[in-house]
Amino acid sequence: MSGDAVPTTETVRPDWAAIDQLPTLGLLRLMNAEDHTVPTAVAGELERIAAVVDAVAARMARGGRLVYAGAGTAGRLGVLDAVECPPTFGTDPALVVGLIAGGRSAVTAAAEGAEDRTDLAEADVAALALGPADTLVGVSASGRTPYPLAAVRAARAGGALTVGLACNRGSALAAAAELGIEVEVGPEVLAGSTRLKAGTAQKLVLNLISTAVMVRLGRTYGNLMVDLRATNDKLRARARRIVTEATGADGTTVDRALTATGGRAKDAILSLLADVDAPTAARLLTASDGRLREALRLARP
Fold first, then answer.
1. What is the C-alpha to C-alpha distance for residues 75 and 105, in angstroms, rounded to an integer?
2. What are φ and ψ of residue 74, in 5° steps?
3. pLDDT digits (tens, 9 = 90+) for 195-210
4. Is 118 in contact with 147 (CB distance < 8 Å)?
5. For 59-89, what is the HEC assignment?
6. Sheet strand arrangement including 66-70
7. DSSP codes of every residue in 187-224
């Protein structure tokens, strides 16, 4: 896409010019039908997404971080994905980071002018001191927003792996990064409102990246969130269900194991399946880099 070309996400569909005259149900059916096209567009990029997942996981296994950088909706989606990782996967908050043009206040209040500030992007990346073990994913619907573009260039100059996620083909963002993901969703029902299909596509891709990376890193056991942080009643109940599902133990036994392991579901599962005490379970998990299946193999030589 040339610098003067209008991104497809910004183009106007003439056949949608009268949507304001549609009955409410007709408008919703049109929007819903367009939303159905997004997963298909994402499916077309799965090979590229898989390459990103494997590259990120390899770096994070060496202690690296995953950083998202975007403006507006794209930036908020990156922040959302990052802040969900600690409760879901038990990660340190510094391990997955979301950078948004305008800073954290831009998460809840529009800071539209900040997306043009390349100096802010450079400063935000410099503050993280990214290196070869780290990955930065720039996110932009158009693929030419200055903030994520500058963030990708700064991160790449520092030796980090860079990924460009855009919703237009031939984007400047994908070209600037080492790895590109371009989910072409086409025009929006409300012309240029990229919080719609483009935002949905970005959310789906970020879900795929972070979840698959954590699976590769052993942060799950099967499809169970064994590293979740049980910080409220709902999550404590979920941890109990997870241990029960993984071990088949009765409620009293599960509660005893969770108490002994300080509420850590993964440790409790290992102590029950391998018939070891809580300190031994903790040592085995440390020796296996937190991978439960590997810890079970160590416990059963």
1. 12
2. -60, -40
3. 999 999 999 999 999 9
4. yes
5. HHCCCCCEEEEECHHHHHHHHHHHHHHHHHH
6. 96-100, 66-70, 135-140, 161-166, 179-182
7. --SSTT-TTTHHHHHHHHHHHHHHHHHHHHTT--BTTB
What is the DSSP track for 239-296? HHHHHHHHH---HHHHHHHHHHTTT-HHHHHHHHHHT--HHHHHHHHHHTTT-HHHHH
pLDDT, position 230: 81
Euclidean distance between CA atoms 87 and 84, whole angstroms: 6
User: What angle, rounded to 10 degrees, do the helices at 251-260 and 265-274 form?
Assistant: 120
Give CA separation, 290 vs 82, 90, 158, 220, 254, in Å. Answer: 20, 11, 29, 10, 20
pLDDT tier, 102 (very low <50, low <70, confident <90, very high otherwise): very high
Asked if 9 and 188 count as a contact pair (C-beta separation under 8 A), the reply is: yes
pLDDT in tens, 19-61: 999 999 999 999 999 999 999 999 999 999 999 999 999 999 9
Please report the pLDDT score of residue 4 as a whole number. 65
3-state helix, strand, coil in the chain (%, to 5): 55, 10, 35
Active site residues: 84, 115
How far apart CA 2 and CA 16 sit, in angstroms, is 26
Q: pTM score, two decimals?
A: 0.93
Question: What is the C-alpha to C-alpha distance for residues 184 and 193, in angstroms, rounded to an integer?
Answer: 15
Instruction: Report the DSSP beta bridge partners of residue 67.
Output: 97, 136
* Nearest residue to 247 (alpha-carbon basis) of 264, 263, 266: 266
Among 73, 81, 56, CA closest to 217: 56
Cα(50)–Cα(116) distance, integer angstroms: 31
Structure-block tokens of residue 91: 């990660």
